[in-house]
Amino acid sequence: MDFLRSVDPETALIIDQELNRLETTIDLIASENYTWPAVLEASGSILTNKYAEGYPGKRYYGGCVYIDEVENLAKQRCAQLFNAEHVNVQPHSGSQANMGVYFAALKPGDTILGMDLAAGGHLTHGYPVNFSGTFYTRVNYGVNRDTECLDYDEIQKLAEQHKPKMIVCGASAYSQIIDFKKFAEIAASIDAFLLADIAHIAGPIAAKLHPSPIEHADFVSSTTHKTLRGPRGGLIMCKAPYAQQIDKAIMPGIQGGPLMQQIGAKAVAFAYALKPDFIEYQKQILENANTMAEAFIALGYRIVSGSTKNHLMVIDLRSQNCTGKEVEELLGTIGISANRNCIPFDPQKPFVTSGIRLGTPAITTRGFKKQETETVVQIIHEAIQHKNDPHYLTKLGQQVHDLCAQFPIYPELVQ
Ligand code: DSN
User: Fold this and answer.
1) In terms of domains, do 167 and 217 share one?
2) Is residue 414 part of a domain?
3) What is the best residue among 172, 223, 310, 358 to mutate for testing ligand 1's pocket, by most ligand atoms within 8 Å of CB?
4) 375: confidence class by pLDDT, cuts 50, 70, 90
5) How far is the CA of 201 from the centre of ligand 1 (A)?
6) Do 15 and 4 touch, CB atoms closer than 8 A?
7) Do 363 and 259 fall within a single domain?
8) Is residue 396 domain-shared with residue 267, that is, in the same domain?
9) How far is the CA of 172 from the centre of ligand 1 (A)?
10) Number of domains, the chain
11) Is residue 411 part of a domain?
């Protein structure tokens, strides 16, 4: 940051302020994390300078010898991590990864059967105003009203009724195990492709703490920055026969020059994820999530679907007479980041919601374990109980600040 501070103090100050925000607040946004300093270094490296349209050994620009090496390294490490037959590490994001898969396998107008955003799915799984719901005919599945879990019989019925060309499984706000084998059987029964979007659960899958879709799905997409703790970005894995189709769909299909600094950073993150420590880290994420859910249940809260088996949960706030929007804003005032989230069959509008989604990847990265996780739940509960008492909220804000001070994230970056 020394160059930046002297050349552009204005931008440097904003980055310093953001670093200070990270250090002094608790991040419970389930899709966020703090990546390793070595990943930051690769992401901010001279790899950003290079145009490298194409793929290793087949580029449309000269001077790609080291670029080829770094992309191959990222691909090899990712393939080893997930046991994948083919990997494309060029998608700029999870949305681009999904767009690439659709572009490779579908024609405009084809039908996608994906999880409803309101039930825990994602914009790119067929939301009406997203490209996925605009270029393709969308049919959504949700969760069972009683169990709030995926209802595979219902998904089978929808598949038979609508004959989608592709079934999309994976979620952004679902706390139970996803049965990829079952999804593959449903897809096979109607001769549809299966895309597993593992953006949220890539970390537990890599650590073998959640079943993998690799042997079951035709295509697997992911981001690299959530539980996987890498740089911001996406990737696609597929069976070997689809390799060319996928590569062509990403470039020249939907993207131009790859972000080589991000690909370099992905290589670094995959190297971390291949170390035994990473398994311990993922176990701790899941343990913290379970601790959090049990602590909320003990305080009388309802967790959507009753429990968590992964890194996140959605809390139904109706018992507290609060909406998701209110609690998101309330937590913001005491230094806790979280996001409002629909509960299944939510009576509130999506901008308001009855739920809040909480995740443990970021707090686990900064070193929180059982005791700190229980303290966080107690702070959230007290904030809700004392939402109209500014003095009490100030006291809780101080408690958040003090807890964060004990668990620095980037001591090497703080001036
Ligand atoms: N926006 C991400 C999330 O918060 O889950 C998904 O892309």
Assistant:
1) yes
2) no
3) 172
4) very high
5) 12
6) yes
7) no
8) no
9) 6
10) 2
11) no
Query: Is ligand 1 within 6 A of the CB of residue 33?
Result: no
Task: Tell me which residue has its CA closest to atom 5 in ligand 1.
Answer: 172
**Which residue has the least CA distance to atom 1 on ligand 1?**
31
- Quick check: helix, strand or coil at residue 169? strand
Q: Round the average pLDDT of the chain to a whole number and report it.
A: 97
Q: Judge if 266 and 288 occupy the same domain.
A: no
Q: Could you give the CA distance from residue 77 to residue 159 in angstroms, rounded to a whole number?
A: 35
Q: Over pLDDT 90: what percentage of the chain? A: 99
Which band of pLDDT confidence, cut at 50, 70 and 90, is reported for residue 415? Answer: confident
Asked if residue 370 has pLDDT above 80, the reply is yes
- The verdict on residue 9 lying in a domain is yes
Instruction: Quote the pLDDT of residue 313.
Output: 98
Only one residue has tokens 């070193």, namely 367
| Exposure class string for 157-196: b at 16+ Cβ within 10 A, else e | ebbeeeebbbbbbbbbbbbbebbbeebbebbeebebbbbb
Identify the helix (H) or strand (E) that includes residue 402.
helix 390-406
